[in-house]
Amino acid sequence: MTTPLKCLLAGVMFVAIGGCAAVESPSDGATPSDGSALDVKAPLLPSALFSGQSEQFEAWHCSPARQHLITAVDGETLRLWSLHGAWRLPQAVVASGARYQDGDISFWNRGEQALVETPRGQLQCDLAASRDASTREEHPNVMFRGQGNEPGWSVALAHDSPELTLTTDYGENVETLNYMVSVMDNEAGRVVLENADADAFFRVRIEAGACFDDMSGHPFPARVTLSVDGEQYSGCGQGIAPSS
Q: Where are the extended beta strands (E) located within the chain?
């Protein structure tokens, strides 16, 4: 059965602005990769993978549809992620609390509770968790970082070149690898990176959408799937913008 939020958000698109061009300075950004092995600059990633100017992500558990949402307040705009994608809602005038609305969709935050209104009904949401957004101070020269558990792994994309650092087996194995962009969909917030070398093949799939660390429960704005050495791993991630 289609959930209320899925029906609601199916016709609304996240405002993607050419990837992290909205947050990367010209010296940190780069022209999009065309998949050529001659590329020497990192690609621009969809803005839906980033927190904007927000310093925190908040996770909300909603009923009656058992939806899990993630929000980040970016100035006068609310960035909203569900299991089905990402959206931006501009701030609206309201007597109390903070309300963000785009057409028939609204998110009304009143402390640790929120009301999500849709053309198909309402969702009552409670604040479940929060996490400080990752920064360049914590991860120097990294424009996106994904991670997962059991076994512990991480992938970090360099901000200035098409290469990534892949860490597997709880940190036992660390490799720096070049990649090519095989999919770049700014509107959907989806990116696929891979190595065309069949002898050392890997693929990293990144999709904008609510993701929760399966050990800590911490919220992230992207789901990450890593395929390497014949194995597939799932985790969460976040785009990391330069410090302002």
A: 56-63, 67-74, 77-82, 85-92, 98-102, 105-110, 113-118, 121-132, 142-148, 153-158, 163-168, 173-178, 180-185, 190-194, 202-212, 219-228, 231-239
State how far the Cα of 56 lies from the Cα of 36, in Å rounded to an integer: 36
Distances (CA, A) of 17 to 5, 8, 23, 199: 24, 22, 10, 36
Q: Which of 157, 133, 149, 154 is nearest to 70 (CA)?
A: 133
Q: When comparing pLDDT for 26 and 168, which is higher? A: 168
Residues whose CB falls within 8 Å of the CB of residue 199, separated by 6 or more in sequence, listed in order = none
Grouping H, G, I as helix, E, B as strand and the rest as coil, residue 19 is helix
23 phi/psi in degrees, rounded to 5: -125, -20
Q: At 170, is the secondary structure helix, strand, or coil?
A: helix
CA distance 211 to 20: 20
The pLDDT tens digits of the residues spanning 68-121 come to: 999 999 999 999 999 888 999 999 977 678 999 998 889 999 899 999 987 778
Tell which residue, 79, 32, 61, has the closest CA to residue 209.
79
Res 230 pLDDT > 50: yes
Task: Name the H helices within the chain.
Answer: 4-9
User: Is residue 58 within 8 Å of residue 69, measured between CB atoms?
Assistant: no
How far is it, in rounded angstroms, from Cα 155 to Cα 113?
34
